[in-house]
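Please, structure for the following, as tokens.
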Amino acid sequence: MSFELICQCGAIHKVPEKFRDKKIICKTCQATIEIGQEKSTSSANKRKKYITLSVLGVVITILCFLSIGGRLLSCITKKRLEQDIAKFESSRRLESSRRLSELSNEKPIQDKPVISRAKGQKYVNTEVGFSIVFPKGWTVKDAIFSDDIIIKAIWRDSKHNFACLNIYYWQNDKNIDFPTITPEKLFKQTYADNAELIDSGVTRINGQRAIWMKMQMTSFGLPSYAMVYVLSKNKRLFALYGQTIFAAGQGVRGETWFEENLPVILKSINSFRFTR
């Protein structure tokens, strides 16, 4: 029977079992080795090396996982960001639209009328009786997350910053006395739970009285601004809701993004006309 002994110089010696408690001289470096002490030190060194290599392996594995996972997360985030923004687009206004629907004491129109388009971005709805010219280059589509919206137009830049113009419609049975209601009262009855009123007023769009409200809100840490114009004719209530969401960061840049898109939104809103 024998056992291996490692000298401090790295030389390996096979020592018979009978010399376990003796001293030997290393043939490589001529050092005197106390066998019992060296064996203990050698075992400890082996354990330290094993632990070090194990920890190093774990660290390398974690770094590889984080590197691959980070790239996967980045891809997944880009794919899901549009879905999150689309959900957010209606989530902050859902309660407000419900409040308008409750005040009108009618259920929103469930079956959306057939879309009729003229040249460019003009949208005509012959059943409800209105037309509007949406901003050039924006995508016109049906709403996914809200039955209150008849039609919408959206715009996203390369950084996923978002702008939209939604057309809401309800029947109004005079629970909202539109000819006399003030902007402040309409805001308290509709959007006050979800937004902060920045400014408001009364104007006319193609001869029709319109109440406008400029608002600010935040969701998921993203700054969002909105400009809504509310009109009514023949017991029909419309909300032309323009909104921007600055996804690339926070702070004053969100307001700048809103102001950059506001002229385009207002131009489209001012093209709104009742056709009956």
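The radius of gyration is 36 Å. The helical segments are 35-104, 183-190, 252-269.
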